[in-house]
Amino acid sequence: MIGKIRQKLISLEPKLMPKAQEVVCPICERLIPESQKDAHHLVPKSKGGKTTEYLHRICHRQIHALFTETELATHLHTASALQEHPEMQRFIQWVKSKPDHFFEKTRKSARIKA
User: Fold this and answer.
1) pTM of the prediction?
2) Rounded CA gap, 65 and 113, in Å?
3) Residue ranges of the domains in the chain?
């Protein structure tokens, strides 16, 4: 199933879309290839969020594996707040050594599973 945002992007006529711009992930600060581009709601939609930002798919999944929607809505609703969190800093340090198109399955934190 394709998300609504991705569906909108796909449905736009290629000639109406601007030339592909290089987008930098605000979390890991690496270039995001088109195949790894995910739109992230800074405040989760379930908590009233509307603003989105493009992230690497692996960074996006890591955020949702580590934090609850309530934590994202109350404390971690900016890229800089996410970057400053110790668990994300460890992840960012690890992922920066990988190529831009790198993707690996992400596991939920034991704290989130419980």
Assistant:
1) 0.73
2) 9
3) 4-113
